[in-house]
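[recover] target loaded
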């Protein structure tokens, strides 16, 4: 982690307004080939190629441990805060061969890259959508405390 990396950590919050929310959720469900459980928040973990990437210092086997730990932490967080999680990677993501082998990971059709994760300065991030339409998008690799803070807010 260096100054350039820290300068590119970004966070955005907002709300998908009432009439737009059902259509937005349907599009996310279509992209993830899934049906979201009613009343649960949705956490999308995203992996992409970017110039600022802590994970790049790892060898493939160490990166796999990091990925497995990410899945474990995300699952635990979602169990605690009534959410479901998904893992999505862009086709040019570092370690994409590892992600293809993971059952939890979905390749991005380009939808997430072009519509949600539009900044490509940091190689990981997340998007949370709460049932009421509140959302948070975050670019950075070490983010589980940020996820928990957002999920626990009413």
């Amino acid at each position: 982690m260096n100054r350039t990396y820290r300068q590119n950590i970004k966070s955005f919050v907002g709300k998908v307004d009432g009439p737009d929310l059902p259509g937005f959720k349907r599009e996310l469900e279509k992209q993830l080939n899934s049906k979201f459980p009613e009343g649960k928040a949705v956490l999308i973990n995203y992996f992409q190629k970017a110039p600022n990437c802590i994970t790049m210092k790892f060898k493939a086997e160490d990166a796999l441990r990091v990925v497995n730990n990410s899945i474990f932490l995300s699952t635990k967080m979602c169990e605690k805060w009534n959410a479901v999680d998904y893992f999505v990677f862009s086709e040019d993501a570092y370690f994409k061969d590892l992600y293809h082998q993971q059952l939890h990971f979905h390749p991005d059709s380009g939808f997430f890259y072009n519509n949600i994760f539009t900044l490509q300065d940091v190689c990981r991030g997340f998007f949370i959508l709460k049932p009421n339409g509140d959302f948070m998008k975050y670019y950075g690799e070490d983010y589980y405390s940020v996820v928990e803070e957002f999920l626990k807010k009413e």
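[recover] notes: The longest strand covers residues 41-47.
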